[in-house]
Amino acid sequence: MKLRLLASTPSVETLIATAMLTTTSGAAPSSLYHRLIVNPAKVVEIVGRLEVQHGSIIEHNRLNWLLEAREEEVLKILLDNRFFTFTRFGSNQWLVSANLRAVVEYAAEGGEFCDLLLESIKDKFPSVYAYGRRGQ
User: Fold this and answer.
1) Residue 61 CA: distances (Å) to CA of 1, 4, 68
2) Spelled out in words, what is the top-level CATH class assigned to the domain 2-134?
3) 55-104: per-residue pLDDT in tens?
């Protein structure tokens, strides 16, 4: 099985930090976002405190991967988590789409696909990656 992240919503960790702050701040979400986008250190600090009581703070994004896997492996993933979508490209090639909430929730399942998912977000979303690793 091979997995490669192709694309994602821009500034995902900034969006997550914005969502987190909207629960404790009276500021407008757009104002919070604009302040955070120019302060990456603050984003890392906020997202580093991530504790999901209500998963919506990490679901307003979209990630797309190219997956090389057998049909049986894809079926297992689909049965384990209904929030991944798959589009067949070829006999063993799939376009996979999900949000970070699905990734983090799937992290608890363990296994090869879980490891590949987490590895695929490690560099681009390090704070969410660290959070996902805590669930294992």
Assistant:
1) 25, 17, 23
2) alpha beta
3) 678 888 999 999 999 999 999 999 988 899 999 998 899 999 999 989 98
